[in-house]
Structure formats: C-alpha cells, structure tokens
C-alpha cells in the first residue's frame, strides 16, 4: 500500500463516519449508519478516568431526568450514551486532538485540546504545537492538562495527572457497602470475570492487586473499544481510534517499522518469506470494515497510538493466536518523556477484548501491583526488534519472561520489578484523578439509599403512630368498661 503523508493520515482519521466505517471508496456504495435503537431501560455505562466537568454535569442531568420516568435495573454500556449530544462533544474533542508524530504515529494530543479549534492552532505533524498547546515532547502520555502560552483556558477531554492510570478506579471507602456492590456489578462482566479466574488468566498470582473485567462493546471492534475506554473514557463508536491504528500502519515511516517487526513475528511462527507480503496486505485490509476483528499487529500499533504499554492477558485461544503478551510503545524515540509509564491491561478471552481495572486501596499490594504473568507462566514480550530481542535475551518464542535482561528493557517503559515468585510485575500509581463515573453513580445510589431510608423511617413512624392510636383506643375502651362494671 502506498504510504500516506501526515496531512493524508489526518484526513484518513477524519474520514471515518459516525458508524465507524471508512468513507466509501470508488465503486462502493456508502454504508448507511445503523438505525438508532429505541429507548430502553438500559443506561450506557463504562469506566471513565476523568472528563470535562460541565459535560458530565449535563450527563448527570440527563441520567436523573430519565430516572424520573423509568427505573433502570441494569447499566451495560457507557454513561455518555445517555445523551448522544454529550457523547458527540466528547468524541469531537478527541478528534480535534489528532496529531501525527515526526515518526508517523497518529496519536491524540489531549494536553490542551480546546473545543472549536479544529486542530488549527498547531502543526499537524506535532513539530510545532503553536500557541495554546504544549510541545509534543513535553506531553506525558498525552493526558497532562496544560494551557500553554496562548492566554486562553484549555478545555481538554481528559485532565489527568501524569501518574494517573486508566486501570485504577477510585476507592469506595465512605460509600455504603451496597454502592460498591451495585456499581461494580453494573460496570463488570461477571461471566468473563468468572471464566478468566477459573482458568487462571487473571487474579491467579497471590500478592497482586485484584483485576476486574469491565463490560466492553462486542461488535467486532472490541480492541479499539477497550483501548478507548481506558484512555478516553468512551467507546470508540466513531471509529477514530481504529482509524488512527490504520493511519499509523499505512504511514511510510511508522508503517515500515511496524512491518519489520511484524515480519519477525511471521518468521518466528514459521511462515515462509514469500507469504509475508500477503499477510501484511491482509492486516491492512482488515480496516475495510469496522466489523473486522483486529489482531496482534494492531495491538502493537494501538500501544504506540495511545503512547503507553499494553498488557494483554488471554485464554488458550489468545495464546494460540499470539495475542497475549506485553506490547511496548517502541516506535517513540524517547518513551520516558513522550509516553505514559502506566500500562493499560486488557483481557482477550472467548473471542472478545475487555478492559481490566483495579479499585484503589483493595488488595494486599501497596502501590498496586500488576503481574506480567498468568497462572501458567509469564506473558511474552511481543513485537520486539532484532536488537531488542538480543538485548533482552528473548528467543523467538519470547518465553524467558523472568530474565534480568528483560527487566532492564521493560523499565524503559514502565515501573517493572521482580516479584516474590521470581516473575515480573508492574507497580502502578495509587493516586488517580477522581473518577467521574463512579462519583456520579455513587452519589446517585447514595441519594437513592437515603431516599429509601427516609421512606422506611417515615413508614416506621406511621406504623408507630398507628400502634399508639390503637393503644389509646384500647385504653379508652377499657376506661369506659370500668364504670359500667361498677354500676352493675
């Protein structure tokens, strides 16, 4: 495929329709967006790191307004979907933050993205951010809030601190116990959680922080949905993150480097060299439809687009397909300053990607500890270059997961350490920004609980009053009967 310039890359990202598909090519009819479903009793919910408070206030108002008309027993998607206009604003802000690095990686500079800027205040190639924007190299993970020198107030989609992590949900301490049970029960996929734990894929290493499997859309685009939830707090319904993966792979610079690593994976899998060209075309052709499943090369590209390590836990199918493993954002020349050191963790199980999360303060480890292994063994390092594989003493199967030399390589990208069992793990930040979603849900259920308690108290008072009235009536009857007996 012919390489794309930086301007063409951004145009490719912008060309995705609201349904998540590429704009129609020549000779193709435009795919009509799916009709909007009728209103149901489900409110769209998923984990959200931190978002614009005014937007989330509108979301909360919409939630409460719907609550007046209908009681919702189950929340399964994302809260922003309650208000399509609000969800559109969130995704528009993300779209306007699309940039291309000098290396050809499409990413999202959320450090100072302002509504209505259309990305015009800075250079699209990331080399000259322009007034009101932080320089490319100074952005820590693409999520640091900064207004720059333009004199205006930044309006970022996310305003997370450098140490913030999409893996960490705030503590439920201070909420009634029922709040944690209800909120996590609605955020999590209980079936996948149970299956993954039973097979030793997650929560199988003693001493590590427990992982939760969060509900993630399963429409064939679950990899970018899960990545988008962890990074931006919304599902990738508009396909912009998927488009960024495609644009990066199609770029003459970044694409060539990805392809080189991809061909090393093919060689290690025993695929003859004459088949490599067809395999690469097949992976690029995946983007012709938004419903086509993404693979390991797309996961590696996603780690670079998000500018943070990606840790994928997986079942036997994931192991056989080569999906499980640690993906490093190695296309960036200075990962310590250009990338977040807080990884995103995903589960690939039963043909579906899901976002994994932890709850602040829960579990035995302080700070939180994410294992880079399952019950069966270490997670392999994926898509290493020849030099990286030699440096880390990793064979073609990437099986030496507990080597000291691997630890040295991992520490360039994350706060990795050797755990008590000799395996490797990652320490995570324990101070996330306030999680807007959990706060909203928590306050909602606290108010509901308070209302129920008030209703119960009122009912008890009414019962007590009725009992007192009955007792008074009985006493009056007894008092009336006594004079009658005396007269008799």
Automatic annotation (TrEMBL):
Residues 111-139 have a biased composition (Low complexity). InterPro entries: OTU_dom. Residues 211-359 form the OTU domain. This is OTU domain-containing 7B isoform X2. Residues 1-47, 66-139, 452-488 are annotated as: Disordered.
């Amino acid at each position: 495929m012919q390489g794309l310039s930086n301007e063409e890359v951004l145009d490719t990202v912008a060309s995705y329709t609201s349904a998540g598909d590429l704009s129609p090519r020549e000779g193709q009819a435009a795919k009509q967006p799916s009709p909007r479903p009728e209103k149901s009793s489900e409110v769209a919910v998923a984990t959200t790191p931190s978002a614009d408070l005014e937007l989330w206030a509108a979301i909360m108002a919409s939630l409460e307004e719907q609550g007046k008309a209908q009681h919702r027993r189950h929340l399964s998607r994302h809260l922003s979907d309650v208000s399509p206009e609000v969800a559109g604003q969130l995704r528009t802000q993300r779209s306007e933050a699309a940039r291309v690095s000098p290396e050809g990686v499409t990413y999202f500079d959320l450090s100072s993205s302002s509504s209505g800027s259309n990305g015009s205040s800075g250079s699209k190639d990331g080399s000259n951010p322009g007034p009101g924007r932080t320089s490319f190299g100074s952005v820590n993970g693409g999520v640091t809030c900064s207004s720059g020198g333009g004199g205006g107030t930044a309006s970022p989609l996310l305003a997370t601190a450098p140490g913030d992590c999409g893996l960490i949900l705030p503590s439920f301490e201070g909420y009634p116990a029922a709040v944690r049970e209800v909120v996590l029960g609605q955020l999590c996929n209980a079936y996948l959680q149970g299956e993954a734990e039973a097979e030793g894929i997650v929560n199988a290493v003693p001493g590590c922080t427990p992982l939760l499997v969060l509900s993630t859309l399963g429409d064939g685009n679950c990899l970018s949905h899960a990545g988008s939830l962890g990074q931006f707090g919304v599902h990738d319904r508009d396909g912009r993150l998927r488009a960024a993966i495609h644009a990066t792979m199609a770029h003459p610079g970044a694409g060539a480097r990805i392809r080189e690593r991809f061909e090393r994976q093919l060689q290690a899998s025993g695929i003859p060299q004459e088949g490599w060209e067809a395999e690469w075309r097949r992976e690029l052709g995946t983007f012709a439809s938004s419903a086509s499943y993404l693979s390991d090369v797309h996961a590696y590209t996603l780690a670079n687009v998000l500018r943070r390590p990606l840790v994928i836990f997986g079942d036997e199918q994931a192991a056989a397909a080569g999906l499980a493993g640690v993906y490093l954002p190695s296309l960036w020349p200075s990962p310590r300053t250009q990338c977040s050191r807080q990884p995103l963790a995903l589960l690939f199980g039963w043909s579906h990607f899901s976002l994994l999360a932890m709850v602040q303060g829960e579990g035995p480890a302080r700070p939180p500890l994410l294992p880079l292994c399952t019950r069966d063994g270490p997670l392999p390092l994926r898509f290493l270059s020849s030099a990286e594989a030699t440096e880390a003493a990793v064979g073609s199967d990437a099986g030496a997961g507990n080597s000291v030399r691997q630890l040295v390589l991992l520490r360039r990208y994350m706060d990795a350490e050797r755990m008590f069992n000799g395996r490797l793990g990652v320490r995570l930040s324990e101070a996330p920004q306030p999680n807007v979603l959990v706060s909203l849900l928590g306050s909602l259920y606290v108010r509901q609980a308070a209302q129920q308690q008030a209703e119960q108290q009122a009912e008890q008072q009414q019962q007590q009053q009725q009992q007192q009235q009955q007792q008074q009536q009985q006493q009056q009857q007894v008092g009336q009967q006594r004079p009658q007996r005396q007269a008799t």
